[in-house]
Amino acid sequence: MKKYSDIKGDTPVKDNIVVRLTDVDKNYGDNRIVKKISLDVSEGEFLTLLGPSGCGKTTTLRMIAGFETVTAGTILLHGEDVKDKKPNERDVNTVFQNYALFPHMNVRDNISFGLVEKKTPKAEIKKRVSEMLKLVRLEGMERRMPSQLSGGQKQRVAIARALVNRPSVLLLDEPLGALDLKLRKQMQSELKHLQQRLGITFIYVTHDQEEALTMSDRIAVMNDGVIEQIGTPREVYDTPKTKFVADFIGESNIIEGYSQNSGDGLMDIIFESGKAVVNGKGIDIDEMLYICIRPENLRITREPVPGFSIKGRVKEHVFVGSSTKTIIELVNGQELKAARTPDAELFNIGERVNVSWLPERAVVLHTKEDKLYDVIENNSASEMFKSFMREDGGNA
Amino acid sequence: MKKREFKPLSVLYACLAYTFLYLPIIVVIVFSFNTSKRNITFEGFTFEWYAEMLENEQLMQSFYNTLIVAFVSTAISVFIGTLCAVGLHRFEFKLKQLISDSLYIPIVIPELVMGIGLLVFFSSINVETSIYTLIISHVTFSMPFVVITVRSRIAGFDKSIEEAARDLGANELSTFMRVTLPMIAPGVVSGGMLALTLSLDDVVVSYFTAGPDSTTLPLKILGMVKKGVSPDVNALSTLMIVGTIAVMVFSQLIQRKMEKKNG
């Protein structure tokens, strides 16, 4: 198991820790949903818990809110253990996935619910509710019932209803999941601006990696109950630490191989379809590893380039709007995705090309998985090469 | 939708069905204004029987009994039944299935068996039948209906709405009063109306569990009919029909208003 210090992001964390999770476990019977999670969230931070469904992100959020008990470990809010505190006694508020507005109350009553509970004076309630309505741009909608609101408006009411209590932490559980793409984009930037303006700590749960990348100060990527990596959006995108992170965030080409020294601080990686060069820092000779290259970092050329090039054939072009994705098939059948800008030359389908990348663009993922040893056994690479070339030559 | 063509057979069928449903009721209403004492021919219009009915002290006493039993037993049923439904919805516990299924037993077993059972029970613990045993008995058979209607209302709603209330600082009681209860109110009202109706016209269970001084209206009418249907029974029945319709319309109005509000 990874130590906390290993997975903590490289960003300097401010001293003001608002939420601290230490070795938190959550079991349902024999089912371990959350496994020894440790996490610090500092004041004013926008932290996203990102992961596929069932990875434990929502459960983690619900434990912070107090809806789920912790099986083991501690949760501190402002340095205070909240184990025995009920949801209504915690200084956090939640925006629920499906808004969970009170259907029998109008917008005003929904927003003032928390203030009425706290027996805030009437004049104060009135003032703060109208402040909130202004903040989420719902002025004039006070008397509307939730059933008369659109998805985006319901979302705003849910946010206003939580923020009016001035919580020190706002928990958001996939709040934009039910909105259509355009509205979601708009709400993303609205939420981000709101958070920056108010300086409230946000803990945001989503399975949408793009959403996480655009909004967060830091992202904690979760998989199967553990935090695989935590860092700024750029860190988790550019330097993923595990294969899962590389795969889940953005698109990646992942190649498995083993290392051989090639001098100059570089390392050769031998894999089924050829040889590639990466930065050798931190790699042992004969180490089994994955290399991860983003589609936008793949270069496709007709002629081999100095350094290294991998032989492949253009399989298809996929138009994705802002760019075209070219799928290249390697000798062993593995497919690599390369993003092509509109200006770049599109090769013919079936054409033989060379694939390469700048060594510093490749991210090396260390692993202890045994199956990589198969690569060595299968690496009659030269044999495959020859047959590949022969076949190709025959066609020409 | 396509406009249906005229089908004489369907129309005849519908007419017969409605005649069968409403003719007996119309007959009762018409004969309640009949000057003749016999329910065979209509001889003239009169309010005589209504006046006679109001002077009949025994009849009026049983009418009060019926109202008291109905309203008290409904109030108790609604209270216990609503709590029961909320509890069954919210908590998981051992034997939950058994407890929830056993609620259906009072609904499915023959009323006669239930009446005898209650009578045997009261006499075995040496309690004399009175208006109190009558109320308890009515609660016994009407409470399950409240539980069922309230549960079906609760089953449809999102648990996170109650969680949101807790999250916003409301404790258990406040969450129930401000969020849960208003949301299940339509179910509570219709459960209550069902309980009220069941209690108002119950004969079988009341027959066994009513004390000598707590005869209800249905029991009283049953007794009177033994000596032949007199016009004052018709008058009474007419009033009951009017009363029932009024209650029904009222409850529908309330429910529609609440559902509109809840969306």
Give the terminus-to-terminus CA distance of chain B. Answer: 27 Å
Shape of chain A: elongated
Overall mean confidence score, pLDDT of chain B: 87
pLDDT < 50 stretches of chain A: 1-13, 392-396
Name of the CATH class of the largest domain in chain A = Alpha Beta
Number of domains of chain A: 2
Roughly what fraction of the amino acids of chain A lie in strands? 25-35%
Précis, in short:
The complex is a heterodimer of chains A (396) and B (263). Chain A has 396 residues and is an alpha+beta fold.
Question: What topology does this entry show?
Answer:
The complex is a heterodimer of chains A (396) and B (263).
Chain A: H1 4-7, E1 17-28, E2 31-42, E3 46-50, H2 57-65, E4 72-77, E5 80-81, E6 92-95, H3 107-117, H4 122-135, H5 151-163, E7 169-173, H6 181-198, E8 201-206, H7 209-215, E9 218-223, E10 226-231, H8 233-238, H9 243-248, E11 253-261, E12 266-271, E13 274-279, E14 288-293, E15 299-301, E16 310-319, E17 324-330, E18 335-340, E19 352-356, E20 363-366, H10 373-378, H11 381-395
Parallel strand pairs in A: 3-8, 3-9, 6-7, 7-8
Antiparallel strand pairs in A: 1-2, 1-4, 4-5, 9-10, 11-12, 11-14, 12-13, 14-20, 15-19, 16-17, 16-19, 17-18
Helix pairs in contact in A: 3-4, 3-5, 4-5
Chain B: H1 8-31, H2 48-55, H3 57-90, H4 96-102, H5 105-108, H6 111-124, H7 131-155, H8 159-167, H9 172-200, H10 204-209, H11 217-225, H12 231-262
